[in-house]
């Protein structure tokens, strides 16, 4: 049996998962919106978000689990339990709406610890270019269910936009690196997977 490492406070992670048997997770715009609303409820209190992308049958998040003293709750929260609560709440609503039953997400959800700035930067590009890789669009700006466009605006956001842009030095380099890494190279080469 595979040993699953618990999420640790203060560490950065690439969190990803898909529908059980690659089933559809998001059938309509309201599904995406509701998942993000639940994400704000369950994950925003315990993590900072640097990049995200929701696809029809899977999703990606690049996050940092907050230090214990940054988490403002009355009770101690286990980060993995917060993700479980998110998935369970979404599954319950999805099952009710579409008259289905049973698990919706694969278990356990996947996580990769991010140990270097290079992996962090490449992880952001990988997440934003996921819709391009899966032929949903030709450019990440064309896909509405990712944090790419949020990084280019000045509108209020909980996304750690300033920190993301600083990793790329500036907004022009952010756009440039996304552009060159979405053209021609297999996306797996960015993460060494």
Automatic annotation (TrEMBL):
<feature type="domain" description="Transposase IS200-like">
    <location>
        <begin position="8"/>
        <end position="130"/>
    </location>
</feature>
<dbReference type="InterPro" id="IPR002686">
    <property type="entry name" value="Transposase_17"/>
</dbReference>
<dbReference type="InterPro" id="IPR036515">
    <property type="entry name" value="Transposase_17_sf"/>
</dbReference>
<dbReference type="GO" id="GO:0004803">
    <property type="term" value="F:transposase activity"/>
</dbReference>
<dbReference type="GO" id="GO:0003677">
    <property type="term" value="F:DNA binding"/>
</dbReference>
<protein>
    <submittedName>
        <fullName>Transposase</fullName>
    </submittedName>
</protein>
<dbReference type="GO" id="GO:0006313">
    <property type="term" value="P:DNA transposition"/>
</dbReference>
């Amino acid at each position: 049996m595979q040993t699953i490492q618990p999420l640790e406070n203060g560490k950065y992670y690439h969190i990803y998962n898909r529908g059980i048997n690659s089933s559809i997770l998001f059938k309509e715009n309201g599904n995406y919106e509701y998942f993000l609303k639940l994400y704000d409820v369950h994950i925003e209190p315990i993590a900072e978000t640097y990049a995200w992308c929701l696809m029809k049958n899977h999703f990606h998040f690049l996050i940092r689990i907050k230090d214990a003293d940054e988490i403002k709750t009355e009770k101690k929260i286990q980060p993995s339990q917060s993700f479980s609560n998110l998935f369970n709440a979404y599954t319950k609503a999805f099952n009710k709406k579409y008259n289905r039953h049973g698990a919706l997400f694969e278990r356990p959800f996947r996580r990769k610890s991010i140990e270097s700035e290079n992996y962090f930067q490449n992880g952001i590009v990988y997440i934003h270019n996921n819709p391009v890789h899966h032929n949903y669009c030709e450019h990440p700006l064309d896909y509405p269910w990712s944090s790419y466009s949020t990084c280019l605006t000045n509108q209020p956001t909980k996304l750690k936009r300033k920190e993301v842009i600083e990793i790329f030095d500036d907004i022009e380099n952010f756009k440039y690196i996304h552009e060159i890494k979405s053209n021609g190279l297999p996306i797996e080469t960015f993460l060494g997977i």
